[in-house]
User: What shape does this take?
Amino acid sequence: MGLIIAIALGGSAGSILRFFLSKVVQTRAGIEFPIGTLAVNILGAFLIGFAFSYLVERMAISPEVRAFIITGFLGGFTTFSTFSYESLNLLMDGETTKFLGYVLGTNVIGIIMTLLGYNLGRLV
Assistant: This one.
């Protein structure tokens, strides 16, 4: 149960930070491009890489702290960080075919499903 609570607390904090940081960046940029979301995704990808290499591999943090930071906080901050981390692991493991399937599937199928969901929402 401790892991679930750690994830929930981290996730809520990460989601709130994502909302505010994205809005601040978008407002300050003042352009018609989702620069706020892009900034959050790029920062999240960097942070999950750092957290894994430094906190997990070098410091051997507890499962609860790892769940709070990586799964909860960074997962709530941006799921893109999890996607990029899992993609990197596939590459590092030499799983090129799985990497390509995951990256292409996530992006191409994800966009198609977003379009389908959007269109269904307009029909309902």
The chain has a mean pLDDT of 90. The two ends are 39 Å apart (CA to CA). The helical segments are 2-29, 35-58, 63-77, 79-92, 96-123. Residues 17 and 81 are 14 Å apart (CA to CA).
